[in-house]
Each structure stands twice: as C-alpha cells, then as structure tokens.
Specification:
The complex is a heterodimer of chains A (259) and B (256).
Chain A lengths: L2 H19 L2 H21 L14 H5 L1 H25 L1 H6 L5 H29 L7 H30 L2 H5 L1 H10 L13 H9 L1 H15 L3 H32 L1
Chain B lengths: L1 H20 L1 H22 L13 H32 L1 H8 L4 H28 L8 H29 L5 H13 L13 H8 L2 H13 L5 H29 L1
The chains are: A mainly alpha (259), B mainly alpha (256).
Chain lengths: 259, 256
Amino acid sequence: MTSIALTQTAALGARSVVRTARQPANIIFPLVFPMLLFAVNAGGLQSATRLPGFPTDSFVAFALAVPFVQGALIATINANVEFARDIQTGFLNRLALTPVRGIILLLGQLGGLMTIALAQAVFYLAVGLAFGVRLASGFGGAVMLLLLELVIALAFASLGSWAALRTGSTEAVQSLFPVFFVFLFLSSMNMPRNLIEADWFRWVATINPVSYLIEAVRSLVIEGWNWEALALGFAVAGGLSLFGFTLATRALWRRLERT
Amino acid sequence: MRDTLAVARGVSWRVLHTFFTNPAFLLPSLAFPLFFFTAFVGGLSRISQVPGFDFPNGYTAFQFVFVLLQSAAFAGVFTGFGIARDFESGFMRRLMLAAPNRRGILLGYVVSALVRWLTVAAIVTVVALLAQMNVGGNGVDLFGLYALALLLNLAGTLWATGVAMRLRTQQAAPVMQMPVFLLLFFAPVYVPLALLQGWIHAVASVNPITPLLEAGRGFISGSPELTLAAFAIAVGLIAGFAAWAFRGLRSAEAAG
C-alpha cells in the first residue's frame, strides 16, 4: 500500500471514529448495555459455579468474555448504520468521484470500526479487573485478548459493511442487531457446552461460530494459554472476516458501478 | 362516558390493526419472549441441579413465569413506542383535536396493549406446553398467574404512556425500556432468591418485581405464596403509573 493510500485510509478511518464519538448514544450504549447484561448474568448465575465440572468458581470471570463479543457487535451495528447513511445521503457517490480507490473506502471504514472496538475492549477489561478478575494468562493474555477482539470486530464489521453496501439502508443494517443477538444467546455464553443439558441447544451452540469466539476470549481469562481454544477463535473470526470482506468488496464494486 | 368509549374503541382498533397487519410490529413482540424462553430453558436447564434449587416443577415452568411477566411488561413498553411514533408523525395532534374526551385516548392504548399481550401470552403458553412444561397449579392458580401478568401489563403500559406523552419522540424508547428491563432482570430470573448471592441478592430483595415473580412461580407449582403482597404491589404500580400517565396526557395537551 502506498503512502497516499495509507493517508486516505487513515483519514476515512478517523472520520468514522470522530463521527461515532460525536454521538453520545453511539458511545454510551455499547459501553453500558454489555456491562448491564454482564452484571445481571454474573450476579444471577453465580450459583452455577457449584455445578460439578464448572470450570471456575467465579461467574464474573466466566461471564467477562461476553461483553467483548457483544460490544464488538453493537459497535459494528452503530458504525455500519452510519456507513449506510453515507450511502443514502450520497456521500459515497461523491467520494467515488475523487481519486480515492474503492477498496480504501472499505478499509477506512473497517479501520475506524476496529479502533472503536479496541477502545471498548480496554474499557471492559478495566471493569473486569476492577471487579477482581485476574487473567489466568497474565499480561501477555491481555495483549492477546485485545488482538483477538480486533479480529472479532473485523469479522462483525466486514459482515455489517457488506449489509450496508448491499442494501444502502440504515433500517436493514439495524435489523441485523436481533440476528446477531440470537447468535449470541444461542451460544455457550452462559454455560460451558459440555454442561448444557438440552441436547438440541448443545448442538446449536456447537455449530454456532459465536461460541468459539466467546470460548477463545474466556480461555484467556479463566484457563491461561489454551492454544486449541485460541486457534479455533482466531480461525472462526479470521474466516468470518475473510468471508465478510469478500462479500463487502464485491458489494462495493457493484455499488460503485451503479454510480 | 360514551365519548370516552368511542375514542378508546377507535384508538385501540387502529393500534391493533397496525399490530396484526404489519410484521415489523407483530414479530418483535412475539420473537423476544419466545427467544428468551428458548435461550433460558434450553441453555440453562442444568441450573436446576444446583444444590438448593428447590422449585418442584422443573426449569421450563420456572422460566415460563418470568417470560410471561416479561412479555406482559414489554407489551406495554412496545405500546409506548407506538404512542411516541404517533406524536412524531403528527397523528396524535390530530387525534387530540378530534377526540371529544382525551381520556379515551389513554384507554384505547391500554386496551390495545392488553390485546397485544393476550395474543403473545397465548402463543408463549402453547410453546411452553409443547416443550412439556410441568404445571402443578389448578385452574384457580393459573387464573391468578395470568391475572398478575395482566396487571403488570397494565402497569407497563401506563408507565410507557406517561413517558411517551411527556417526551413525544421515538428517541425516548430507551427511557421507556431500560427501567423495565432492569427491574425485570434484577429479580431472581435464573435461580430462586435464596440462591442469589452478594449485591444481586440485596437488589432482588427490594425489587418490587421479585414478589410478583415468586407469586407467579407459586401459582404454576400449585403452592401459592406471597399472593397478597404481589397483587398489592401490582395494584400500587398501576395506581402510581395511572397518575403518571394522566399527568403525561395533561403535559401533552399543554404542549399543543
């Protein structure tokens, strides 16, 4: 990538971040809502740690993985709603008339989103530490966790950008939120998969990619360096990113062709 | 009185017509309770094996009561969203000009919220029975359970109506939704109160929704408990939120 392309990507990424920062609702909601759900679940399900085979005696530590995935999801929806608005208002069309290459538009958007997700992840980590959670993987695990969060955010962001580019509709992107939410709740977010009693639910959680994202983050918090969980988490997030990015790139070309 | 009823009939017909003919309104109302029911019963049923979990009718019935009450409260909140939408579209101003008795507007929204919830409750009940929910209570107990949920629906509607009448914008949705969400989820949702520990136990102990939830679970298991307290709280919530909603109506009238 040339220095000009880098400058353009950075400028578009910065625009994405600043636009989000200017809307308090887009900052507060992704920070507060995952923390509320975290508080509710960590408080209400603490007694689950008394089940034989439960991997930790602290449900706070067990549940800390969820905000990382949920926060990435909410940030993605919010930022891609703005991206869809750019399409609706014609900003993307005007930008397409400039020398900026199409792929730079996408990279700038995704970069901005990942920056926001990273800031959120630092906040969640700080809250977890404040509530007495100690990462079993240590300082290196915290760095790995933030890296993993970036890949998870890229996965959701690329899928969200595809939806924004494909439909060009803020409502369509917003409607992705319940869909992502279903994936979150039908995962191993509240119970290890081997302890899920209902066979059908365990099966759904096993084929649900979100389970592997949560379990990778969780492994760093409560287990230490579980390379299998990490490899699965990175593979799923990387695969989704690649899939979403390919779709988003094709949708971008089509949209620019139309203009 | 006839004017009030005529306005109420018109308002409730309009809301219900929109609700039943537009999937964008019908589906979220149905999907959220069913989704919570599925996720909690499917994913967390092992919780019933925690030492001290003494609910006799199984985890499906335990969660059904929560989902029923949650659907009742949120049917009211969703009605509040509709009122805010009517303000933004300008429909409410025309309605207030046309209505000979504006209390009928409130009554119409309350009736429509009730019908919305009854529809959702019927479907959630059928799904729970298909999921082999174990019901221990008799007809009177179950009547008590649904009556309690109905009162919570009324309270939720009046709360959301009061907010919508004051703020008159769809951006008020989190103000309607978040307190209800917090009250519901800071109750003993996943396990009985005795199994909660620490701060959540302290919060759940003073949460007015907790007696409603415990009374509801008592009804479905056939061992009613806290019945009087639960109904007293529900009636108290309705009285308070009715005043809140009527003052909201006055505020909307004053704002023109």
